Amino acid sequence: MRDQQLAHIKEKGVAEARRLFWIVLYLWVLLGLFAVHRSIVLNQQDIFYHQGFAFINALVLAKIMFVAEAFNIAEDMKHRPLIYPIVYKSAVYTVILLSFHVVEDALMGLWRGKTLGESISSLGGGSPEEILVVALIMFVVLMPFFALREVGREIGDDKLYEQFFVRRTKYIPMQS
């Protein structure tokens, strides 16, 4: 009995770690590209330095997404056609991630001796239009992520993983 419980806990831990890994990887690619873009636009030479911050941000934001998923945030539309939960989750998680990014920028600015207003004004360049553009980009970039998550929920995460990384087999839906 105890061995079965330990095996179940280990199996669940591995599955959760795998889910967290994919979230971190996706966000790191996204944030890493933003960092490269910013380095090129601002003509900065320390591209790799910013990749470290992109990775740390990816870890933090992935954990936030992971916890939000554990609390079933934005699960209201899971029985509707796939486009609804994909768009809804992208919007909700954009707000969540942007909010935490603002808090993070504020705390980092305060730590560096800036005022709260100076800290927050650096997000997305500072203007409301630029912050809106960052939110729009994040919303669009989260859509493929949630599309894959929702498809994985429908056909099974293992089957989705198999289709992408193991071998291609024709998907035959189960008859219900």
Automatic annotation (TrEMBL):
Keywords: Membrane, Transmembrane, Transmembrane helix. It comes from the Bacteria. The chain crosses the membrane at residues 20-40, 52-74, 86-111, 131-148. This is Membrane protein YdbS with pleckstrin-like domain. It comes from Bradyrhizobium elkanii.
